[in-house]
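Revision sheet: structure tokens.
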Amino acid sequence: MAAEAVRYVNSEPELDDGLQADLHRLVCRQCDEEYRVHYSASESSRLEDHRYLAAERISGEHPIHSRTILL
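Predicted:
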């Protein structure tokens, strides 16, 4: 039931939320802020949707990137 994009700094997540981390990196189109989707087991079938939504929201937040983005 949970999915969020978590910002990474130096390849480390800024938040330990206990969720599974996607190996696919998402990067803001306007800068190099890196995020990865963190998701619960029940959301694994929707991972592609979460990646798409997260990519849009990450770039939309530029230049003020938050630590997490709830998906």
